[in-house]
Amino acid sequence: SSAKVKSSVSLRRPFVTCLDRTYEVVDDPSTDSIISWSQSGKSFIVWNPSEFCKDLLHRCFGHHHFPLFTRTLNDYGIKKVDSELWEFADDDFVKGRPELIRNINNRGDSDSDSESRVSTRNTILKKKNNAESRVSTRVTIQTKKKKKKTNKLVAKAIAAQFQGLEI
């Protein structure tokens, strides 16, 4: 079944999307203790988010960040459906129907949304760089103050030694 899904995915598209990879992971029986279809097959559940992040997320998606995974699902309109579980659903993400995935579109695919995301990302990076620069400046100032204080103490100790030597 898993081989059938992989072949149908590769024939359908020239590249594999994150939804294809998610479908493959959910559909793989060897991962059922970590992530699997719900009983109805109309949703999937991440049973063990820490194991999912450690073992599967990096291998399939190139990162270890569960919030990024859930944000990506949300970008495609795949919603969390149970407040108690990490259960997600979409009408076109259904067990045994991988061909339906092509009906799911990234809601952020428009140019204005893309520009907005890039602008937001750049703003966040600038703020992060500014914060890192401020921290670096504070550390440098604190280091200089400590050196100045140490130099004063050394100078006092040397002066005290010379006073003791005077005749």
Automatic annotation (TrEMBL):
Question: Which is one GO molecular function term here?
Answer: DNA-binding transcription factor activity
Cite the entry's keywords alphabetically: DNA-binding, Nucleus, Phosphoprotein, Stress response, Transcription, Transcription regulation
Highest rank taxon of the organism: Eukaryota
| Chief localisation class | nucleus
Q: Which SMART domains match?
A: HSF
Tell me a GO biological process for this protein.
Answer: regulation of transcription by RNA polymerase II
Q: Name one GO cellular component term.
A: nucleus
**UniProt cross-references to InterPro entries, sorted A to Z:** HSF_DNA-bd
Could you list the residue ranges that cross the membrane? none
List where in the cell it is found.
Answer: Nucleus
HSF-type DNA-binding domain segment(s): 11-107
Q: What PANTHER family does this protein map onto?
A: HEAT SHOCK TRANSCRIPTION FACTOR, HEAT STRESS TRANSCRIPTION FACTOR A-7A
Q: How does it assemble?
A: Homotrimer.
Please give the family membership noted in the entry.
Belongs to the HSF family.
Protein name (Swiss-Prot/TrEMBL): Heat shock factor (HSF)-type DNA-binding
Please tell me the species this chain comes from: Arabidopsis thaliana x Arabidopsis arenosa
Source species taxonomy: Eukaryota, Viridiplantae, Streptophyta, Embryophyta, Tracheophyta
